[in-house]
Specification:
- By secondary structure, this protein is α/β, with parallel strands linked by helices.
- The protein has 13 helices and eight strands.
- The protein has helices at about 1-15, 35-50, 65-70, 85-90, 105-110, 115-130, 145-155, 165-180, 195-215, 230-235, 240-245, 250-265, 275-285; strands at about 20-25, 55, 90-95, 100, 135-140, 155-160, 185-195, 220-225.
- An eight-stranded mixed β-sheet has the order 3-4-2-5-1-6-7-8, sandwiched between helices.
- Helix 2 (about 35-50) crosses helix 12 (about 250-265) and helix 6 packs antiparallel against helix 13 (about 275-285).
- The longest helix is centred in the last third of the chain and has 19 residues, at about 195-215.
- It is globular.
- Magnesium ion binds near residues 35, 36 and 64.
Length: about 290
Amino acid sequence: MRDQAESLRLRLLKMQGKKEAKVMAVVSGKGGVGKSNFSLNFAINLSKKGHSVLLFDMDIGMGNIDILLGHSSKVSFIDIFEPDMSFQDIIKSGPEGLSYISGGTGLSNLFKLDRDKLDYLLNLLERLSLQYDYILFDMGAGITEDTLQFLLSVHEIFVITTPEPTSMTDAYSMMKFICSKENNADFYLVVNRAQSTEDGVSTLKRLSQVMKQFLLKDISLLGFLPDDRIVNKAVSRQIPFSIFEPKSKISISLAELTDRYLNGLPNDLEKKKPASFITKLRTYFSER
Ligand SMILES: Nc1ncnc2c1ncn2[C@@H]1O[C@H](COP(=O)(O)OP(=O)(O)OP(=O)(O)O)[C@@H](O)[C@H]1O
Ligand SMILES: [Mg+2]
């Protein structure tokens, strides 16, 4: 019954000629580099610009986004399989019209679902991708075989690193792993916690040069964000930094980075129309 209603809603949206959302995943090699803060505040900035955005917290069991927003709710994405729960029940409202879904038990369980649940979930995801302009997945650090397949389905992979050599090395290893499976993944690099403009620019350049030299891969340089004490304060107050202190260095840098993203980076011009996220996911699951 629920499945039928879902297929009907989907058909209606398709008939209305809705376009599929741009789907991005925010990842890092090393943990704690600022993925969740970036994802949340970038999503808020996209919303502020009038786009409809869904932020999906995929960090297993951590509930990062809930904490950063000072919200507490036990409902998470895996609860859609509970009787009488609809997708609307697990989509929460964030600032600036942002929608978000808490991770709860996270992505690893997605790959252990039985066929019926998986089909139901893929239909729901397809509907969401017709409802929103952007869907952003805040992923956990590192990568597994399962998350790799998921990452290969999204349109854009945002890689966050800090200028620390360990963080850069881990970011490189992760991109190398992804490229070993599919070389046409679209990477967007963000350097977080830069100590200066020079620090940010040289980190962006160094990573993009090694990608080019050793993997023959061009990546898009989205920009850098400064190290700013405001982030820590905002996290402690459980208010997203771009709302807590919109005039801070980091909020201004992120607003500029968002504009640059929306205006299209030079590499974007050559890009083909993105393949369907849902089609890629379905193909992966049907081949398993
Ligand atoms: N630009 C910044 N300036 C200063 N501190 C920062 C900045 N970005 C992040 N931090 C600090 O790093 C901490 C971790 O950030 P965040 O939770 O966003 O990282 P993460 O990559 O999502 O972590 P995890 O891998 O655990 O999911 C923040 O609580 C904050 O103290
Ligand atoms: Mg996080």
